[in-house]
Amino acid sequence: MAGQNFLSRASWTLVDQCVVSGGNFLLNVLLARTLSQDDYGEFALFLGAIFLLRTIDYSFISYPLSVRLCVVDDEERPRLLGNTAVLAVALSLVLLVLMAIGTMVLEEGNILLPACLCYLSWQAQETSRRFLLADFRYREAVAGDGVAFVGQVLLIALLLWIDSVTLSTALYVMSATFSLGALVHALKLRFARPDIGELRSLALEYLSVGKWSLVSYLLVLLRVQLFPWLLAAFAGTAATASLQAGLNIANMMNPIIFGIGNAIPQIAAHAHRSGGILGASRAAYHYVLFGLGPILVICAAAVLMPDLLLRSVYGPSSPYLAAAAGLQLLALAGVLDYIAEMISKTLLGVQAGKLAFVVNVVAAVAALALALALIGPLGVFGACVALLIANSVRMIGATTAIAWLISREKAKAQVVLAANSNAAAKP
Length: 427
Prior knowledge:
Layout: H1 2-34, H2 37-68, H3 77-105, H4 112-134, H5 138-162, H6 167-186, H7 196-235, H8 237-250, H9 254-304, H10 306-314, H11 324-349, H12 353-425
Helix pairs in contact: 1-5, 1-8, 1-9, 2-3, 2-4, 2-7, 2-8, 3-4, 3-7, 4-5, 4-6, 5-6, 7-8, 7-12, 8-11, 8-12, 9-11, 9-12, 11-12
């Protein structure tokens, strides 16, 4: 029964994430082939901003909720979801202001309204999706994610067939499908009337639980997003577009990285309550191993035939065909990122966020130093080399952190065992 439960959860989280990442991949391909390099570079920067803001929501809403659901009964869940929804709306409005300010600072006022609308709709869809995932309802999330992510690809493809698509039009289409996806998710959730008296204590609890997740994953995102931003600063948005073109293919690993990663914190938290750090690690290990095989297959394909993949995705005359060497490095970096990310998720599940933070600080500092040293002389290729080395640093650090926790736990267990033995030996 336990094996069937593991297989079902692991399979459906991958199915759901394949829908999400597959839709993102097809959308990026459509826009890369349609928009100018400068416009597509702007879209890549917009995605980076979205992911950065969503990290805040995940850390202070979704992650604490997933931990809290482990200890509440079925009667309490609707009220917990209702209270959490109020906190999510309040946080989203604050983040919306940041999105608007960022858009104006970058002098992209022409996409201010569609960008903000897209962010708000995407936030509603992602938050309601996380509510389902926090309760291991991966299968039920597939329909809403299909409406949101596959729907936007179909609509934009239809618009391209009729006429053409601009960046603003694409953002409006995404807003519509994300709103519909959020509605589909919300219909599967039970919300009770929020308890105003509980909101303050719940907010403080979520802040306490999520603070280390926030700083850790802001560092993770900054480690990745600093490369397109530095490329844009040093070489222009066309260089950012070239990097994003390679990432689009390397990111075929994302369904596995995000899918398995969505399950690890809850799995580790459950196992940690009865089996400690070692039990949590063993429970997470089965999920990590489940995803490692397809990760290695994707990496092998990108390393062995990068030219074929680039031609197949972007066309035989695309300016992105020159990114073949970079794609090989990005694929190898993806494998390292998968291993490091799964260990970091395990650390969060066992409430070892400080260690995850330390690991990500070291990786982010390494990424920044390498990016500044290599992007200037080597451009896009230098960014890929820097990301590969930074991911290596993160994987080594994460592995060291979890091994140290396990060894410390074993040492404490031996001390307790020795003390009990001595007590039993005394007359």
